[in-house]
Amino acid sequence: MQYKTETRGSLPTYNKVNNMNVFPSETLARIESMAAENAVVIFSLSTCCMCHVVKRLFRGLGVSPAVHELDLHPHGADIHRALLRLLGCSSGGASTSPGALPVVFIGGKMVGAMERVMASHINGSLVPLLKDAGALWL
Q1: Is 66 exposed, middle or buried (0-12, 13-18, 19+ CB in 10 A)?
Q2: Residue 27 — pLDDT band, cuts 50, 70, 90?
Q3: For residue 92, is pLDDT > 60?
Q4: I need a surface site. Which of 26, 55, 84, 91 has the fewest CB within 10 A?
Q5: Which one, of 34, 42, 59, 33, lies nearest residue 105 by Cα?
Q6: What is the DSSP pairing of strand 40-44 with strand 66-69?
Q7: Is the pLDDT of residue 43 over 50?
Q8: How far apart are CA 111 and CA 4, in angstroms?
Q9: Which DSSP string do the residues of 14-77 spell out, in sequence order?
Q10: Residues 111-120: contacts with CB within 8 Å, 24+ apart?
């Protein structure tokens, strides 16, 4: 059994109550480090059409996101499984299917997958979020 703990300004962490398939803390540290490298970070698959849509959305808004193509990354499968768990998704088949990708971080904080990003764009909250993170100067 696992439970999620969260501290303000950081990614949720998972504490292991027993030895049930919890992803290693170094994977979380790797995600946190990658998410902090740029104002906007997208975890993606190079062949995923929805990932392409989200990348185009940000570039169309004038944002230059850091993009991590998990199918080309040496730790991509582990990162993908950890992102699925952070989103609250089942990790079954994470290494073979896109699952909840793309996953977007803005200002080091996880915004979520495509539907959350698109909802933020449609309701007008995405641009202020990008401005607060320093990704837009308009």
Answers
A1: middle
A2: confident
A3: no
A4: 26
A5: 42
A6: parallel
A7: yes
A8: 17
A9: EEESSSS-PPPHHHHHHHHHHHTSSSEEEEE-TT-HHHHHHHHHHHHTT---EEEETTTSTTHH
A10: 112/87, 113/87, 114/50, 114/53, 114/54, 117/54, 117/57, 118/57
Q: How many CA atoms lie less than 13 Å away from 102 in the CB half-sphere?
A: 31
Q: Are 62 and 113 in contact (CB under 8 A)?
A: no
Amino acid at 38: N
d(CA 20, CA 85): 13
Tokens standing for residue 117: 């990003």
- Parallel, antiparallel or unpaired: strands 2-5 and 13-16: antiparallel
Please give the backbone phi and psi of residue 102, each rounded to the nearest 5 degrees, phi first. -80, 155
Q: Return the residue matching tokens 């979520």.
A: 112
Q: Which of 63, 16, 18 is nearest to 40 (CA)?
A: 63
- The number of residues in the chain equals 138
